[in-house]
Each structure stands twice: as C-alpha cells, then as structure tokens.
Amino acid sequence: MTPTHFTFSTAFILGLAGLAFHRTHLLSALLCLEGMMLSLFLALSLWTLELNATSFSASPMLLLAFSACEASAGLALLVATARTHGTDHLQSLNLLQC
After folding, report:
1. 97 strand-pairing partners
2. Which of 38, 45, 50, 52 is the right S-S partner for 60, CB 3.0 to 4.6 Å?
3. What PANTHER family does its record include (predicted)?
4. pTM
C-alpha cells in the first residue's frame, strides 16, 4: 500500500469512526460525512490519473456534485431542526414525538 492510499483510507476511516462514535450534534455528523466524501473524491481523482483512463474522468466531478448536494440538504435540515427544536442535538430528534 502506497503512502497516498494509506492517507486516503485513513482519512475515510477517521471520518467513519467520527460518524459512528461522536453523534451528539448534527453538525459534527455532517462534517464527518463531508470529510468522507472529500477523501473519496481525492482518491477517485488520483485513481483516474494513475490509470490514465479517460472514460472515468467524469466520475470524480459527479461525486463532487453529489457531495455538494448532500451538504446543502444536510445544512437545510440543520437549519430546519434548529428552528423547530431549538438545538442540533441528535438525541432531541425523535421521530415519534410530535
């Protein structure tokens, strides 16, 4: 495993561990998701450059576009929950409450 592959896989695993273990605030969960997506984007970009594959050249841009859409939807949910519940704690977001 090269140092670049190790770096990207470590960044992804750290984002996944942060998402799994530190779920107190919605903003921290969104930041972990964004870190995971950025590490995937960089890894996919370098993979297409290493292989010199022109057929995969659009896939990093598609991944970046989807991650931007995910980030905007997550921030919209964060604003909506902060307005309705007054906090972004994930413990207060119970779907069974009205």
Report:
1. none
2. 45
3. NADH-UBIQUINONE OXIDOREDUCTASE CHAIN 4L (PTHR11434:SF0), NADH-UBIQUINONE OXIDOREDUCTASE SUBUNIT ND4L (PTHR11434)
4. 0.82
